[in-house]
Amino acid sequence: MSPHAVHEPPPLVELRGIGKRYPGVVANRDVNLAVHPGQIHAVVGENGAGKSTLMRILYGEEQPDEGELLLDGETVRLRSPADAIAAGIGMVHQHFMLAENLTVLENVILGAENTRWGLLDRRSGRRAVREVSERYGLDVDPDATVEHLGVGQRQRVEILKVLYRGARVLIFDEPTAVLVPGEVRALFGSLAGLRAQGLAVVFISHKLDEVLAVSDHITVIRAGASVGSFATADADPRRLSRLIVGGELPAPAARRRGGGGEVVLRLRGLRAEAVADATLEVAQGEILGIAGVQGNGQTELIEAIMGIRAVSGGSLHIAGREATHLGTRGRRRLGLACIPEDRHRQALALPATLWENAMLGSEDLRRRSRWRVDRKAARDATGRLVAGFGIRSPSVDVPAAALSGGNQQKLVVGRELGGRPKVLLAAHPTRGVDVGAQAVIWERLRDARDDGLAVLLVGADLDELLGLSDRVQVMLRGRLSPAVPVGELTVERLGRMMTGAEPEPVDSAAENR
């Protein structure tokens, strides 16, 4: 964290009195944000608080209904991202927008190529990319193919793309969501380099410890309005939590040693696409964490266990029953439930109502007569789910698309736990949700574990994994390491294991079983 300057230059970019309305929703109301050159300015708030709308306005994707945007003290109107880029505003998206079959150089200059006599001038493009890379300390081989780069290197390519186009204001949307600890430190070093060059950085994150570590100034948005703006030196987690959610900051800790009960999920040498000889056991009353850099087979492992990806070898047992050749429905009937990693594509029918979504995969909510669904029973059950999980919705008859991301995720978690499963697959259960929804989900997972549920938790948030899990296995290049008790792990050690920098541990617990 750098000290906030005593005498600040005028803002490089400023949003004044921004208001934005959609039918039935006020997304922003009188929001103010001023970002100075040489400053990392964090924007925090709950999902649905209005951060994304504000950033879309800053990047030219949306037009404000009230207020104004100023660059260098002059009012400007950005009608599109192209206008924003031309004005010196760039965005580094959470989900990378790279062509994997192209080189770094080709990705960076794509759409902004230098030409000579009507032909692509690769030499000048390579020289320009190298100059930008050296100036900002972004070490990437311009001739490397993107598909061969790690996640951290791909992110540097995204930053290079923005800088190559002359950005002076850079918006980072949840930039650490897919990074391991070493890559996070490297990113923070890159941000410090941007700050040292006098650029303005807008840093959006749900991870308050990262906000406190990297930013100079913080603006909190709540219910569409800016409710606080102050130097990071004057902030602490408790103050931020109170401003964001009106309460204390939740923590994933408060763990007690689980396990010791009957093994209810057992994999022996399970093989599938991107999964090689996966072996694990999860007992009643235990949370087994699976850590790994994105793209090492975690997604495929969950899909193979759930029955939506073909298994080519090995065995799977659920509650003592052979389930390797059962379909998804058969596995659910044995007591398997799943919180998938992509709630929009895999868990929700967004145009459908809350009660219709609550019925998906849940036998308890299918109150049927001979020919039709008992809608009243389904609505009543969904109403209890909504109340029990604190889902903010005027009615169970609104479409799932109308909910914020955090409330959508609580609906999915409530539905899957509501069927009283024996085994829960939880893939990134708090990804992209605010600290309020995070607290609810953590509490419900702990409660379910304490009631005897076996949980297989796949996550990228290492603090969450270590705080909730009893044991952790690492997935690297499709293979699972032996399990390690969380008491023997730190974030740093887990990060080394995820990148293969530490020898594989011995699973002493497995040897004793």
UniProtKB/TrEMBL annotation:
<dbReference type="InterPro" id="IPR003439">
    <property type="entry name" value="ABC_transporter-like_ATP-bd"/>
</dbReference>
<dbReference type="GO" id="GO:0005886">
    <property type="term" value="C:plasma membrane"/>
</dbReference>
<keyword id="KW-1278">Translocase</keyword>
<keyword id="KW-0547">Nucleotide-binding</keyword>
<keyword id="KW-1003">Cell membrane</keyword>
<dbReference type="GO" id="GO:0005524">
    <property type="term" value="F:ATP binding"/>
</dbReference>
<keyword id="KW-0677">Repeat</keyword>
<feature type="domain" description="ABC transporter">
    <location>
        <begin position="13"/>
        <end position="248"/>
    </location>
</feature>
<keyword id="KW-0067">ATP-binding</keyword>
<protein>
    <submittedName>
        <fullName>ABC transporter ATP-binding protein</fullName>
    </submittedName>
</protein>
<dbReference type="GO" id="GO:0016887">
    <property type="term" value="F:ATP hydrolysis activity"/>
</dbReference>
<dbReference type="InterPro" id="IPR050107">
    <property type="entry name" value="ABC_carbohydrate_import_ATPase"/>
</dbReference>
<dbReference type="Pfam" id="PF00005">
    <property type="entry name" value="ABC_tran"/>
</dbReference>
<dbReference type="InterPro" id="IPR027417">
    <property type="entry name" value="P-loop_NTPase"/>
</dbReference>
<keyword id="KW-0472">Membrane</keyword>
<dbReference type="InterPro" id="IPR017871">
    <property type="entry name" value="ABC_transporter-like_CS"/>
</dbReference>
<keyword id="KW-0813">Transport</keyword>
<feature type="domain" description="ABC transporter">
    <location>
        <begin position="259"/>
        <end position="502"/>
    </location>
</feature>
<dbReference type="InterPro" id="IPR003593">
    <property type="entry name" value="AAA+_ATPase"/>
</dbReference>
